[in-house]
Amino acid sequence: MVNFFIVNTANSYNLQKDTVTINNLIKEAKAKKKNKKEVFKISEDVIALSKKHQYKFGLFKGYFLQGNVLLDDYQYTKALKNFQLAYENAKFLKSDISEAEALFNIAYCYQYLDETTKAVDAYKKCLAKGKQDTLLIADVHTNLGVSYDYSGDYGKAIVHYLESYTLNKALKNNEGLGTSSSNLGQLFSTLKIYDKAIYYLKKSEAIAISLKDTATLCYAYENLGANYLSKNELLKAKFYLEKALKLAKAMNLQEYEIVSLTYSNLGMLAIKNKAFDKAEAYLDTALNIANQKSLTFHKTFALTHQIDLLNKQNKLEEAEEIAQKALDLCRNTNQTPLKVNILEFLKETYAKQGKFEKAFNTQKDALKLEKSLKLEDNLKQVAVLIATRDYDKKKQIENLIKNQKQKVLESKILTQRYTLGFVVFILMILGIFTFISVRNQQLQKRINEDLAQKNHEIEISRIELNKQSQAFSDLNNHKDQIFTIISHDLRKPIGHLSSVLELLENNILDADDFKSFIPQISKNVKDTSEILDSLLFWAKSQLKGFSLKITEQNLFNFINEKTASLQPFAKEKNISIINQINPEVKIKIDAMLSMIIIRNLVLNAIKFSDDNKEIIIQLEEHTNHFELKVKDSGIGMSQEQIDNLFTTKNKSTLGTKKEKGTGLGLYFCNDLVKKCGGEFKVESVLGQGSTFSFTIPKYLS
């Protein structure tokens, strides 16, 4: 996307300079070796410079970078403000993907701030904006499932989890598939459908092991341990929980939620095994982590099992105090199952203290909640089963429609075959009757002559038809090739000119401002004209009667002139184009043909070279010809790539900075070199660079 900003003529140089600086800072922030503080400082510089000129792209990137740093540091409120500012600036860029990325992170922050309704709204907006990015859509469905899961709407949660699972499976995105499997496992675990939960968690475990994804594997181990603990299979529970904790410590994981839960579950296990000292240590650690990272649910979870431990240690006053803290936390969250557990443990505390009236009332409250919880659990299980059934039915209908279309197609083909067979059969019978009816020798001879003549005419018609078909195919291919070049080479300069004219037409750009754009417009028009001339030249070369127009050129000056328009592309990657041709050498060439070839070769070298490299142009003289060489130290090519280089099978690949190309430039160059009696050569080593050269016969001179 090309962005234009209205500035005074006097400030145009500063804008251009600052814009380059901002873009370089953004690239620097993405460097792998940068730490959080460095990235945050860079983002501040990007925002300050961008504000100076109201450079919307810079503001979007600056706030987005800053938001990511704050997000990594668990400062969700501050991160949210930055992503909201990034979103406001993304609207001016008219880029759905940029808006979708900002919305995704806004929703993510709301999710961790327990503002579920706002998170869901933002995720839904992200779904509408990010339709073209299937991977992002899969992630949105995952997080929507988590939002509905936490709010207890398991029917909607299962639909989004299954959609995420299906999309990731289609994309062959094993990382996302592992997360989806883990979420499905956790949901079934919440609904106490433990066998189903373990099935999906084992899938998640297998994928995480294959990807060496430590975080997801840690989640799988913890959840498997928790499920086996709920089934009272203590040995299996211990096995998986200890594996989860060991893995988290070994890899120094920052997944504090899972570490806190693991310590709490190990505390529960220790209580069941009557190892109270161990249980106390585990639960204290879980609580400390939850307090440090402001994890409300995890804090309540650890406190709940501390009450159970204190009861068993007969520390009843302390147990009562902890129970009241846990109940206060539950008032702000929708965690009815935890509240039932707290009330059950508090009832036991009161009973041991001899406070039987309080124990009775607490038991009454617990039974009331438990009764509603059982009803709620049953309803949620039914909702999940209905949602799963509806989702499966939807997929079955989609597959049924697909299969039905296939059957209809197969039926048509079969009908056509039967019809053809019937026609052939009828023709055979007619042939037999014809043969019988022409027994007369003279009549037979005449019929044979007529048939021979008809066959001859049919053959001539067939040959002519084939020629016309081939000519049409060639013409169509040439048309496609020309359109590809137009799309590749003309879109950017014409788009630039169109944008400026639109600003002028809408009176957004005044005369003085327009003058500042004239040099660039003139250059773009010149470049566009040169590309069109090249395109017309190549098109003419495909026609009959094409002939070369030979002129004498100072090759050194010719090369400098024709590569001048390519310098901006080279400067974007800090690449030097070095002309090593003797300034005194003059040879006779077709100027247009040579310009097209040289331009394509230098553009190709820029595309596949890394930053701060050199492109060298040389000329060698041989007995019968000259050889012009363009050398680069880029990514090089394999032998398979070289073999397909000058064929239409050659497919365009992205450059080192994701630059796009037609994939047909070298095919055209080779075609033009052959027309002047020359030869194209390629030498390349993968990872070290390539040398493209072509010969110019001396008879041209």
Helical stretch tally = 25
What average pLDDT do the residues reach? 80
Q: Major sheet, described briefly?
A: 5 strands, mixed
Question: Globular, elongated, flat, extended or rod-shaped: what is the shape?
Answer: extended
Strand content: 5-15%
Query: What's the Cα radius of gyration?
Result: 37 Å
Q: Which percent range fits the helix content? A: over 70%
Distance between the termini: 46 Å
Runs in which pLDDT lies below 50 for 5 or more consecutive residues are 1-13, 375-383
Strand order of the largest sheet: 2-4-5-7-6
- What class do helices, strands and sheet pairing give? alpha+beta
Number of DSSP E strands:
7
How would you explain this protein's 3D organization?
With 701 residues, the protein is α+β, with helices and mostly antiparallel strands. It contains 25 helices and 7 strands. It has helices at 12-29, 36-53, 56-72, 76-93, 96-112, 116-129, 134-150, 154-171, 174-190, 194-211, 214-230, 234-250, 256-272, 276-292, 296-312, 316-330, 336-353, 356-437, 441-505, 511-541, 555-563, 567-571, 591-607, 639-643, 665-675; strands at 550-554, 576-579, 586-590, 614-621, 625-632, 680-685, 689-697. It has a 5-stranded mixed β-sheet with strand order 2-4-5-7-6. It starts with 11 loop residues before the first helix and ends with a strand.
